[in-house]
Amino acid sequence: MTALDAPIVNIEGQLVALGPLRREHIPLYLRWINDFGTTRMLGLPPRPMTLEQETAWYERAAVDDAGTMFTIYERATGRPIGNCGLHEVDHHNRRTDVGIMIGEPDARGHGLGTEAMRLLLDYAFTVTGLHSVMLTVFEYNLAGRRCYEKVGFREIGRRRESRWYNGRFWDEISMDILASEFESPVLRRLLEPEGEKLRS
Ligand SMILES: CC(C)(COP(=O)(O)OP(=O)(O)OC[C@H]1O[C@@H](n2cnc3c(N)ncnc32)[C@H](O)[C@@H]1OP(=O)(O)O)[C@@H](O)C(=O)NCCC(=O)NCCS
Questions:
Q1: What is the number of the ligand 1 atom nearest to the C-alpha of 117?
Q2: Ligand 1 within 6 A of 134 CB?
Q3: Which residues make Cβ contacts (< 8 Å) with residue 80, sequence separation at least 6?
Q4: 146: Cβ below 6 Å to ligand 1?
Q5: Share of the chain above pLDDT 70, in %
Q6: Residue 198: pLDDT band by 50, 70, 90 thresholds?
Q7: Cα–Cα distances in Å, from 184 out to 117, 123, 169, 187?
Q8: Is any ligand 1 atom within 6 A of the Cβ of residue 108?
Q9: Rounded distance, CA 25 to CA 83, Å?
Q10: What are phi and psi of 120, to 5 degrees?
Q11: What's the pLDDT band for 21 if we cut at 50, 70, 90?
Q12: Atom 31 (ligand 1): residue with closest C-alpha?
């Protein structure tokens, strides 16, 4: 691997690291977003996505000032395994919605999504100074619900029977977390002003 191929990362955890979106990953995103096993968990219509649609999404996301998207890398292998991000950050009210997708099925169920969400919240609260973060998850997404609970999200309400899936309606669950309920795993220490370090 040359230095140019190496992942570019902003935030490093133990299992995963978060870095910017990269244009050369568009073919990967396209494969992830065409996996109906994955997209049944997302608020996307269950239909094929073309390279043109995915490239248009990338072009928008790559320059979107209202949100911040990250690539999730598995640290053990350096491979990109998914995306996560802040959507529609509201700086006046210091709140945002977030989303996550581990696109590689074999990377699920090993704690990577949970750590990626922790690092994303660290970015939201510690770097961006947000106060409230919310997400929605479908009732049948048990891995997602458990992952978010582990990070500290709690259920705040349900839009009942608003998701048609596998022959019946399911609830869409809203979950939130406040800055005061979150302990920074990485960034508070990393970004500590020099003066504070000298005092301790
Ligand atoms: C949801 C997602 C981000 C979770 O990431 P992950 O790396 O798979 O999750 P983790 O391994 O960190 O944690 C999953 C937890 O759910 C549990 N879990 C998994 N499947 C479960 C099931 N069917 N029932 C109950 N719990 C389940 C795991 O045991 C684990 O909990 P534990 O650590 O207490 O044992 C990931 O699976 C994913 O991206 N899925 C596809 C797209 C998606 O659902 N995106 C989110 C939309 S809201």
A1: 3
A2: no
A3: 7, 22, 25, 28, 71, 72, 73
A4: yes
A5: 96
A6: low
A7: 12, 9, 37, 6
A8: yes
A9: 11
A10: -65, -40
A11: very high
A12: 146
pLDDT of res. 197:
63
Protein residue closest via CA to atom 12 of ligand 1? 111
CB-ligand 1 contact for 94 (6 Å cutoff)? no
The two tokens of residue 181 are 């309920």
CA angle centred on 86, ends 63 and 153, rounded to 5°:
175
The CATH number of the structural domain formed by 11-199 is 3.40.630.30
* Ligand 1: nearest atom to the Cα of 37: 41
Which atom of ligand 1 is nearest to 102's Cα? Answer: 39
Where do the structural domains in the chain lie, given as residue ranges?
Answer: 11-199
DSSP state of 52: H
pLDDT in tens, 85-109: 999 999 999 999 999 999 999 999 9
Nearest to 83 by CA among 71, 66, 96, 97: 71
